[in-house]
Protein: Putative dihydroflavonol 4-reductase
Organism: Hyella patelloides LEGE 07179
Amino acid sequence: MRVFLTGGTGFIGANLARLLLQQGYKVTTLVRPDSCLYNLQSLDVELVEGDLNDPGLTSKMQDCQVLFHVAACYSLWQRDRHLLHHSNVLGTRNILRCARKANIERTVYTSSVAAIGVGKNGQSVDETHQSPVARLIGYYKKSKYYAEQEAISATRLGQDIVIVNPTTPIGGWDIKPTPTGEIIVRFLRRKMPFYVDTGLNLIDVQDVAWGHLLALEKGRTGDRYILGNKNLTLKQILHKLAHITDLKAPKNQIPYWIPYAVAWIDEKILASLGKKPSISLDGVRMSRQKMFYNPDKAVTQLGLPQSSIDMALENAVHWFQQSIP
């Protein structure tokens, strides 16, 4: 079976591409002309150039039976709101329309828990939860919500689409890196003297890849599945990194207003003067929430693996040590 994969150059997509090849699938990967192909080097995949909003994607999918739509624009900068809508919402609408025309048999769409929102006071939530869109912090989360609505609308037109909502993956091939990968990199460089009171649900990125494949095989059309594992505070994550690396974890928690003030100056003043901001306002606002989730549905219905988070963090540390100067 041949699959059409978007986002193969990214973190989740690169791990999914490797798993698909290991399981005997043939993989065609959509890449932009300016894409960094580091994550796909030496892989036996067919590369086709294009963009999510390219109306000619139908012809590029003709020989494929399955679509994994993993690609998304990720940014927490408020200035990127139009780019986020164009890529995540309009791009999802276009590629699903092209998949329908190409007679793709089944699609697995990679949404995010960002589209689901968060529970009150750090409460863990599942797929049945939905925060009002107005309460989703930042344009990225809103764009993922509206992109997921595009997938749901497409199922009403008869398309066979399963939705997966990864939490916070960790592991190898985090090339950009992701915000959580950036935490690990900053920790390794000893540039994290303080921490904020926040929390995340972590999952091994290889389990996320398996979650996609299991969703293809077992997922119910129109359903969404949280691909997650363990809820941890940032303080707990940093202590795990300290145990892995023998480096000291930061001892002091920083008040919320300090990074917020820095982010406000960065985005509202320095960015307008042409300087690159270092901290995003939306990122700081998100840090006030504990983003905890319950993956039981995916574990029970799909058989989602729950690999050791300590081992996943260790794998991420080793990958960054070897790959990041």
Observations:
- The CA atoms of residues 76 and 260 lie 14 Å apart.
